[in-house]
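Table S7 (text form). Paired inputs.
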Amino acid sequence: MSDPWQECMDHGVEVTKQAGKMIREALQKDIAVKQKSSPVDLVTETDQRVEQLIISSIKEKYPTHSFIGEESVAAGAPSVLTDNPTWIIDPIDGTTNFVHRFPFVSVSVGFAVNKEIEFGIVYSCIEDKLYTARKGNGAFCNGVSIKVSGQQDIHQSLVLTEMGFKKDPEQFNTMLSNIRKILTLPVHGIRSPGSAAVNMCLVACGAADAYYHMGIHCWDMAGGAAIVREAGGVVVDISGGPFDLMSRRLIAASSGAIAQRIMKEITEFNVGRDDQ
């Protein structure tokens, strides 16, 4: 008997590769940049073209499936996760990197059924690294099995987060304070590659030991969360509760011990939800 979700994943991988090719070609040309909600919230024509490519290809093959896409939501589409098979798409995760030609730019695709992620696909297209994970089947980079580092000691850890301007001064100060707290534990260091999906894949393959973030979106997290879990890592809410795809926050780590220690150090701030 055929596995319908595996067939979906195979199609998702093919269209993600096509999207990555489109992004690499766009990097050879002038990039037209528009501003969304703030001077640091950017979108390009390529974001919109890539999302259209992915969604139209999948809709043609699976017309009854649902979609949550970053640029569709920006244009007014709802961001609601139902039990229906749902593709959660970030056409360019790391748009600011793309604009500056900083080399961590990814296409992120997550697929959920009954609100549970069945598989994730992240293509770091400048690096030409294709990360994939299917629930219960492990995680892979370019077809080779990957595992988290398994690090248990926060003092021996390399931690990832993202930092940027926040209009709310209290949130901005809390973000900076959290970075200071983590650095002074001490840890080996903090890095900010600029793509949430790439950050999670770096944890999944053992190149970093944890990633925490407040203020991202379901399309940033869906693909990478599947890959971290299948690589043997943990993905939890900032508060320590279960990971909630619509919560806009997470800790992805090589071990429960690392996740717990980050949880203990950082202060939460309200970032709202994607489904509100």
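Next pair, protein 2 of 2.
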Amino acid sequence: MATNGAVVDHVLVEENLHARTVILNRAHRLNALSYQMVSRLHEVYTACEKDPEVKLVILRGKEKAFCVGGDISEYFYGITEGGNWRIGVKILENVITLVYKVATLGKPQVSILNGMVMGAGCGISIHGRFRVVTEKTVFAMPEASIGVIPDVGASFFLSRLPGFFGEYIGLTGARLDGPEMLACGLATHFVPSIKLSLLDEALNKVNTSDPLVISAVIDEFSEQPPLKERSAYHRLDIIDKCFSRKTIENVISALETESVKEGDAWISEAVHLMKKASPITLKIFLKSIRRGRLQGLDQCLAQEYRISCHGFHVAQDILEGYRANFLRKDRTPKWEPSRLELVTDEMVDLYFSKVDNDVWEDLVLPVRWNSSIFTVAKL
């Protein structure tokens, strides 16, 4: 992007002794990842991995957001104006291979999630070794509300949260704060934002890739914050009871029953959010998370690639979600199918099969030195 004749680099890299600080520098778009940014991040991570002087990578976002996801407008205009769903596939492949590179990076990554983190922002941070949150952190996976199936390894990390909490936050798009992320395991540390500059200074003095040493450094600035009284995480019993049901219809029915008995506001909000979301996206995402419990990260990413490619090929709910939420902003998408009961098992199963197109191929992730660590282990 050019501003007053000057070219703005949307990915900044600071070299400090044995650390490399990577800064997402697209604050006017809340650091949403463009295709060019993802390509640049590929280059940066490759360079960091090859440089023996680099011991750790620090990833942060500029200003009030970490990263709110991928730039969905690129998918939209690629499909509509470009007239070729393969444009979306190319962007998707670029993102997924970056997520895998982060997950299998040969150096520890410390992600500073001080602000909003959504979608692809989750993909490039949650799979890293250390995830530091603050009182300003807001996490969400709101893809179902815009007709998009998460494609950044969400079926891997959500399926490994306690009980069925992953289904809850994935299917509803409910927001979590820093303490909630720490409690459920999405974050490894909580550091008050006022201490981040001190943490940064300490990390830049580290001369080792030993995760125990790096964790001890972060521990010096960490706290154990209390959960808010009304946090849904306090009600894992109800979440497990409802979100363990076999179908989305059963989940919603169970929630409505609990709402009558308990009267908790978060239950009513969960029902409301799910009823607004794309019906077919909800059903696909539920199946994806359930399968993810028995898959390694590479399998989850390959599965999500298939699903999203089908989504680009059909494009109905993706385009409608973008129109309703970002173009006209009327927030009244016309989903197809329009109701959960109209979404058949055959419709859902199709998204998990190979795309029936002569030029389409399954995703083949590169061989990485430590890819075997991502089997079916916990986060």
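Residues 1-5 have pLDDT under 50 and may be disordered.
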